[in-house]
Amino acid sequence: MFRYLVRRFLQMILVFIATTFIVYALMYATGGDPIQALAGERPVSPTQRAQLVKEYGLDQPFWKRYLDYLNDLLHGDFGQTLTGRSINDIIAESLPTTAKLAVIAILTTILVGVTAGIIAAIRRGGIFDNSTLILTLIIIGVPTVVLAPVAQLVFTIKLPWFPTTAGEGNLYALLLPGIVLGALSVATAMRLTRTSFSENQRSDYVRTARSKGLPTRRVVGVHILRNSLIPIVTFLGIELGALMAGAIVTEGVFNINGVGFQLARALRTEDTPLVVGIVSVLVIIFLVASLVVDLLYAVLDPRIRYE
Amino acid sequence: MTNLQVGGDQPAGQHLLEVRDLFVEFHTRDGVAKVINGVSYHLDAGETLAVLGESGSGKSVTAQAIMGILDMPPAKIPKGQIFYNGDDLLKMAENRRRDIRGKDISMIFQDALSALNPVFSVGWQISETLRTRTEMSKDAAMKRAIELMDLVKIPGAKTRVKDYPHQFSGGMRQRVMIAMSLAMDPKVLIADEPTTALDVTVQAQIMDLLADLRRDLNMGMILITHDLGVVADVADRIAVMYAGRIIEHADVHSIYKQPAHPYTRGLLDSIPRLDHKGTELATIKGLPPNLMRLPTGCKYHPRCPYVQKPICVDEEPRSLNLGNGRTSACHFAKEMLDGNLG
């Protein structure tokens, strides 16, 4: 177990370095003019420019700049944005909002998706099963770019149940965007749960459990559920990581000051340090999420042992 | 001794368990498969009945009908009765029936690896019924689980009770399943091919264990198998099934001495024997019948070496009472018994 953790940790460091390098290189390769982006519409005099280039180290070779950046990063310093704000502050400010949003989304997925999947599996071939099949296909087919504005229009303007924008994000205001964000994974979670559950329903151990005279709710709720959860937990864990990163559209539509919102802005203003900083944080979240999933896997399924 | 071809008008309750004229069919998209076609057998306390037959003969389905764990649909029981202590299980309300299931009548299955739940420890699974169906506390149930594991001779039960099924060998796993089935002190134990998935030396140990437990706990045991060699030592009586019917029923000694049905003789002849060394092993020609389209007349006639036209093809033989509880569903049962056939 210890050796496994060490190995995983080394892998994570490699992935982390590789990802930041790629993002850094890509931002470098876009070849914009960060000085002009910094100045906005105002003209920049050659002396000012030369001074700024020196200050930000833009005259250094690429590999030197990357190594400097990485060095700061490993010391927990994400550096500054081009506008001089501390990136650490921006992340500390926006990450909790995004986390809340992602948790609402994942809870939606569990409550609606997993529950519906179980019901569909138990009543396989019934009306519920068939109608949810069609419904999930439709939902899977509608991208967030469409779903988010439509939900906003219907539930905040036509029916004023929720505030139109969530801003700093009190929980109630985040509810609608959270549900919109979770809608996509609801469909996937439902299909996955249904498949996993039906497969387990046919297992020999279910017949054994029934032959022990256990009530159906115990056979379903303990024996089948526990086995079906294994792939579902995997999915949910990875999905939580993806939701934190994938909230760009939803956060944009609902004007939520989250990580995705900041990332979109950083891309627009070509703020290389901020883009790379945010992506680094997302990479870390994703890596930790997948590690937690893998460890949970061993808890849920005793047949899996890590050496 | 009771005549096996009893009609529905006979009083119930003379036996611990009695299956009477049971029919089971499976309704599938391709049609109706008639899996059980009028099976009757009985079991008394302290005896072992071996139900013998090849794959698809309906021996497991009959057992599952007794347990009430058939999936209905697709399975359907159009006719028949199953008496336990005189009460018809098929007419019982589900909650009363569940009360009997696993407690009075319990069952062990063929492949213990897939029949045990992979994600729970064996102690958890053995004690589950005690925890959920009796007032027993968690600790007491776990202690009882260790006792049961000792009873089925699992070495180091105390240290292994928290282990998971995949950490046991095949034979030990089967013992775990047996321990689990004994948790509620059943009166009837149905063992569905308990040794098929095991290698030969382990098979013998498990059969010995089952025989000992049956005697010590005074249970009635139904032993489902396709292995004639297995039953000889442990069974009191044998019921041979073919195409969803009992085609011969007798005590072990009589059946080995002189089978009264060509199919039973075919089975006996196909056991490898030391004194037949060098000669080719006898086999039963052909394949078991398609349950969607059963043959006319005697279901065995297409494979029977003694088939006599037209009677075997046209007329389904009744179960003939040959005395001493012995029956055979062959038109020529008497001739078979006297050795005048073949």
UniProtKB/TrEMBL annotation, chain A:
UniProt superkingdom: Bacteria
Family recorded in the similarity comment: Belongs to the binding-protein-dependent transport system permease family.
Organism: Rhizocola hellebori
Membrane topology: Multi-pass membrane protein
UniProt-listed SUPFAM superfamilies: MetI-like
Residue runs in coiled coils: none
Name assigned to this protein: Peptide ABC transporter
InterPro entries assigned: BPD_transp_1_N, MetI-like, MetI-like_sf
Lineage: Bacteria, Bacillati, Actinomycetota, Actinomycetes, Micromonosporales
GO cellular component, one term: plasma membrane
UniProtKB/TrEMBL annotation, chain B:
UniProt GO MF annotations: ATP binding; ATP hydrolysis activity
Descriptive protein name: ABC transporter ATP-binding protein
Source organism: Rhizocola hellebori
InterPro entries cross-referenced by the UniProt entry: AAA+_ATPase, ABC_Ni/Peptide_Import, ABC_transporter-like_ATP-bd, ABC_transporter-like_CS, Oligopep_ABC_C, P-loop_NTPase
The keyword Iron-sulfur appears for this protein: no
Main location: membrane
NCBIfam families tied to this protein: oligo_HPY
Alphabetic keyword roster: ATP-binding, Cell membrane, Membrane, Nucleotide-binding, Transport
Membrane topology term: Peripheral membrane protein
Family: Belongs to the ABC transporter superfamily.
Subcellular location(s) per record: Cell membrane
Segments forming domain ABC transporter: 17-268
BP term (GO), one: peptide transport
Cellular component GO terms, alphabetical: plasma membrane
